[in-house]
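Memo to structure team: turn this sequence into structure tokens by end of day. - J.P.
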Amino acid sequence: MIRKKLMGLAMLVSIFVCNNSIVVGQPNQNLSRSAFHYYLIGKNKKSLKLYEAVFKQRQPTADELYIAGELAVLTKDKDKAIKYFSQMLDANYYPYEMLINDIDESFFNNDTTWISLKAAIKKKSEEYRDRILAPNDFSSSKIADFCLKLYHSNISGSDFYERLRDAEPFEKLMGGEFTLFTDSLNNSSHLVYIPTSYRPAQRHPLLIYLHGAVTREFLPDATDFNRQHWVKLAEKHQMLLLMPLANNQKIWFREEGYLHVMNSIQEVKSLFNIDDNRVFLTGFSDGGTGVSCLMTLANNPFAGGIIYNGAPLFRTRIDKKFTMAYQNAGERFLDIVATTEDELFNFKDVSAITSNVIRNNDKINFRVYEEIGHQFDYTDPEFSILSKYIEGSKRDPFKSEKEWIIGSSYFGRTDWIAISRISEPMDQIYPSSMFFPRLATETGKVVVDKLLSDIPALPSEIQSLAELTGLMPDDTIIGINDSKVENYGSLVALERKTNSFSKILVIRNGKKTELAIPATAASLDKRIFQSNGWVKAIRKDHNEFVVATSPQVQEITIYINPEMIDMDAPVKIIVNDELRFNKRVDYSKEVIKESFLNFRDRKSIWINRIVIDLN
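Reply from structure team:
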């Protein structure tokens, strides 16, 4: 029972290729790795002997001291058990009270030293909790009230926008402490660390950490986040830390977990002066898996993310809403960190998937630490890298070129472009069966920009379009079956109305080439060219937007911010080679209010939206 619980805690507190890969060797890790391995498989005497050898070489961690104490209990060595639990207490870190309570009291036979030690552990744990979990007397509705007051006033839309953008109605709060916030309405809670340097008139970065072991029934102990390396990082960068707390009712890669994270971010932004363009997402184990999910489905709040020892869900369908596509990760920076001896996520599988993915996405970096298991024994190099991101990376919500792939419209939005309606939820994301056109070519022809190769975990019966037809980058598509293709819009129209495909006519190296579509393509139904909801949009000069979509997309929405356009000139939107909108856009107080209250994001307040029906 104890060992099973500690497995969950270990995933929580242990935190957190190709052209983008770095492999780092870790000397002197063999002993501790072997000790933990033998602990997991129940070789208690051998594990304890190895831990004692580790303790002779370096200062033990509180985690290791607890394990050594438990191993001493299991090997019937009372003196060693008391010794290691006492040292754990002196290490000034106390997440193990609930585990101490599970130890068989009969083993100690009412030993007075043990009774005193257990009471001391309990007392110090309660004192610490009382200090960090003290209730707060400030309200998170202050900035929302400020927004609503402005909305109901007689100010113009432009003034409403500017005053919200520049608003800083925050109070001075005591720093240097963790605070627990509980949302009784949503039955959720999150932990926040406020740096001692926090100033309500200064915008501060925010780091979000998603813990592991979210398949447990119980929530993690709030003290598990009290690690000095996180605190030092927060103080160094004058940065707030946010740790949403979750269990099997709010798994990060399910809808409840996603909403929990977003609500926690909104709460923090309501209370503290956050730099919206410097919000960073990290996570270990299940938390790392959550990072890959959020960065490919709902990246709007984040400047980027780092996955520590998690499963990269780059072509996975959890349900009809949670269907991930790895191309989306390229909208922000994303680092994947793996260890060669990971006991939970097989390194070969993680490496195979990631290595193939980053061939097509140069914004994904892959780092490997050798001779380490499912533990965060690479703190120093990783925190140095994380510090560089915090200092030098910012989100750009108004980036001129956007691309997004979805399985349903639930996660259809990235920054200013959204797929707001799709013909049907896709059962699976098949990026490798997709072809992507080159937008805004001078000729107006359909030129193949890229074809993505298969990666592991793709169902073997699904082949890429390149395999099926021999289509290649730089081919110009001029016909389907016996119908002429004049531009991308005509190709979309053909695919929507065509029930079967037999051939594609292309221009390759100046020559007409006919590509036969074999019978196996029938398994893809009508999704020969685009197998998912896909949109690519370019914001050009002079208020012009050029957009291409897959045939499954029925409606798109473009969100407008004054930094993106000239508000005095008409906005021109071309979708699939057809002019769909050509009007001036004004400020909408309703859209501004909705945008702000939904996201509390002062750096990307949307002043209006343009909805385009593609049916």
